[in-house]
Give the backbone structure.
Amino acid sequence: MDNQQVLDLVIGVAVLGLLIYRQLRTRPVSASAMRISLVLGVIGLVETVQFLQKHHAGTVELAALAGSLVLAVVFGALRARTVQVWLKDGTAWTQGNLVTALLWVVALGAHLGYDALLDQLKSTNGLGNATILLYLAVTLVVQRFLVIQRAARLTPGQGSTASFGAGGFGGAGR
């Protein structure tokens, strides 16, 4: 593992810690909280493109990346089901729990484990570390989208997520 791969992994784990911390806090559901997903996604996309260009990626690497992103979608959907969403004074609120946090850790492990498996089969060495922020962004967007949808069903007459306040997103109903 080279220095860039170690740095990517350390940054990914630090971001994961921040995401877990935010998920366990009670906060209003808000579409504006997608900013962190956007930032992670842009940085992750840049790192991914740089890796793919540097390693002259072909079909195998792109298929490996697609497989990883499918894992991100699956874990985002699973976590969304573990997060509580409820109404208080007309505002939708959300909070994750221990299972939510555990699924975040398992999701990162699945991403890195998938990458390690692929390293044994084909020279995609480092793809998992290079795509870690993109993976976190995709899984977070899926989770937040599903939570926003659930929150919208709780608020009668609210067709827009803009009225949810300034907090964040989460997952399953209370």
Observations:
- Residues 159-174 have pLDDT under 50 and may be disordered.
- Helices lie at 3-24, 35-54, 59-82, 98-121, 127-130, 132-154.
